Amino acid sequence: MSNSGAHGVTRPTMETGTPANAIPVERAVLCTPSDFIRHSCFVVFDMQPRTPITLVTGPLGSGKTTLLRHILATEPGRIAIVMNEFGEIAIDTKVIEGRNVRIAELGSGCVCCSLLGEFEAAVKEIINKISPDRIVVETTGLAEPEALVFNIQEALPQCRLDGVVSVIDADMLIRFPELGHTTRLQIEGADILLLNKIDLAEPEQIEPLEIKLCEINPTAAIVRTERCGIDAELLFGIGRERKIAPAEPGSPIPATTHRHHSEFQSFAFTSSEIFSRDCFEAFANDLPASVVRAKGFIRLADGAYLFNFVTGRWELEPFESDRTELVFIGKNIVSGKQAIIDALDGCIADTENKLS
Amino acid sequence: MAITDNLQKISDTVWELPPSYKEGMRVPARIIATEKLVREMDEAVYQQISNVATLPGIVRYALCMPDGHSGYGFPIGGVAAMDVREGGVISPGGIGFDINCGMRLITTNLTLEDVQPCLKEIVDRLFQRVPAGVGTHGFLKLTHDEFRDLVEQGARWCLERDMGWHEDLEFTEENGCIAGADASKISDRAVERGYNQVGTLGSGNHYLEVQVAQPEDVRDKELAEKFGITIPKQIVVMFHCGSRGFGHQVATDYLQNFLKVMEPTYGIKILDRELACAPFDSPEGSDYFAAMKCGLNMSFANRQVILHRIREVFSEIFGRSAEDLEMRVVYDVSHNTAKLERHVIDGEEKTLLVHRKGSTRAFGPGHDELPAHYRETGQPVIIGGSMETGSYLLVGTTSGSETFFSTAHGSGRTMSRTKARKLWHGKQLQRDLEARGIYVRSTSWAGLAEEAGGAYKDIDEVIAATELAGISKPVARFTPIGNVKG
């Protein structure tokens, strides 16, 4: 995962027709999802955007349900939340019994789902029935996120792993100095660590906790929260609706974010030039650790792509856009802003040799 | 893992972390394993087993069995006995989430030659009739109230509905129904998760296997006969499953309760919150004990219904009754439990709450809790290997008192499920196994890959370690020929 190093993945370009070595479509449907990766078994997609999946993990009682409530209250998109049981969030709502999933409508266009069958089948059913802007999966407090990450990356080509968020209770970390086996795995597997319930800890106790978390997972961003009050811009990449938050070039982070996390800043970069792929990939790999999230659209020689970056892990996905628009969010990144912009400017493809 | 300086070799199969290893340890922590197996264990096992040694009321040693690896709080393979009169605690992390996941072994009077021609039909039909996979529903339609009765009555509930023979109960731990299960102590949520899962295998390492006892694999002919392994190339059926989502929810509910009261009410300080616990004699502790027993009974009933389905399938295919096919239960053993047992400690008999997590009870000959049929031989112990390598029938020994009569439960993983998925591919694995004469059905290719033989320790090494340590003794080894993977 994120702590395995800063190597991004470029997805195969699925919209450019059937590759020469592809097997016929009627055989392709026989492939299991994992064959897709293992045996380069190409399945012909219509240009469906991939649905981002965010995994929420953390020990029992750390605040996962609170985070879900917070997401529902603050993130405007159409969200499908997958929980083991939805008793705590969806009460007295209309429930639809599907084959692999039970779905409760929350009124706001969002839904709450609980699994009846295999996770992969349930996610597919949710996408087909609801086509949500994003999916947020709450794992049980006992779950080890690595296996689910693997499931999403291997068996759900119609989804993109947007991030793994682990909610860690600061108060519990102080009271129980030895980390449990499962908690450790949940910290190791995270892109973003919410150090939650900081209001229950003394201010001077918090930094040592951050150091402890950082020793276990040096690449994850650590965000201090009370009642999981994290800004959605930091939490999520671009959703299926593909809207990018309006940010004037060089502006600080949007006001909503400012309220929660004064140490986080953002800036935008826009351009109508074409960028070199090799240079941009090297740029993404070399982004400083202070950048937590980067997202937007980038125009390369072979077309435009959606760019999603979270704490060192990034992906490019084909997308229609006539401009490059990128937003960078991180801890005190304004000081490194010029270097990032210069590096991007250095990736503008030589127009003489432009392929297009 | 590397063997630390603190780990003292007591004998070839006993390794000890003394109480000086960590502040707060009340007793030494002991790992029962050969040096090879100790080296294969992950480092967290040291931390976990020494944390267990700090729990209030623990007696003699915190133990880890030869197949141990790290788990939630306790290692899987952890054994800890608490003196309930000396403030001993009960800890869900010491029992496991899949309460009473366990093994059941059934004999037949069929041989490999009888079964070979219709093996695929048998496995395919078992696959249909014993639903496997995450979240699956069983064919048994229960109301919530009926389910509450079932968790109080265990396998007896099934017998009253003609799903089993009277002797099945005799050959099940606790006669298939542990006393003191109280359905008023379980949440509606737990009922919701379990009421439609009776008669299902589940996922992960749960499975149902058709196996053969090759004549050269019968290690103790006399005992094997007493246990019902009487003919060359005899076919047996072994399966592994537990209390499904129900047990999981019971454990989750009480872990949360315990975290709230443990320190404020009872002043218990623990190092790792995954070891959340409460005094056994506290209201919270006794409520969990009564709820956990519901998990035990749910699991006994689950295995009883599955046994009934297996008998139906064999009976249909061979056109003979299950009685005629002599489809007897050898024994049903539990892995994830805490039970009140009497043990002699320093010459004095004490009532102890024995936590066994990923460990099998293995009473030796003469134990008064054993059914008459096994009183002289000792308790049959069933240890499942990976789906590729084979499984064992063993017997408990009188020398097992050092581990509170507990032994290993399986071969134990050597790598994470994710790593196994990266190394093997389920579909290919199925083809390879079929070429070797093992026919496998699974609901999930990825899940199948997780259970590849290479992801597990060498079962023969684990069994040899238990024999060398004197905690159980092999009777027969079985080779798989058909497998329904959960």
Short description:
With 356 residues, chain A is an alpha/beta fold.
Number of domains of chain B: 2
CATH topology of the largest domain in chain B: tRNA-splicing ligase RtcB
The largest sheet of chain A has its strands arranged as: 4-5-6-3-7-2-8-9-10
User: What is the count of helical runs of chain B?
Assistant: 16
Question: Uncertain spans of chain A, ≥5 residues at pLDDT below 50?
Answer: 1-46, 247-259
Output the radius of gyration of chain B: 21 Å
Tell me the helix content of chain B.
25-40%
Label the structural class of chain A: alpha/beta
CATH superfamily of the largest domain in chain B: tRNA-splicing ligase RtcB
From the alpha-carbon coordinates, what is the Rg of chain A to the nearest angstrom?
A: 20 Å
Task: Bin the strand percentage of chain A.
Answer: 25-35%
Overall shape of chain A: globular
Q: Could you give a short account of the major beta sheet of chain B?
A: 8 strands, mixed
Number of domains of chain A: 2
Main beta sheet of chain A = 9 strands, mixed
Mean pLDDT of chain B: 94
- Which CATH class of the largest domain in chain A? Alpha Beta
Quaternary status: heterodimer
Number of strands of chain A: 15
**Number of DSSP helical runs of chain A:** 12
Residue-averaged pLDDT of chain A: 78
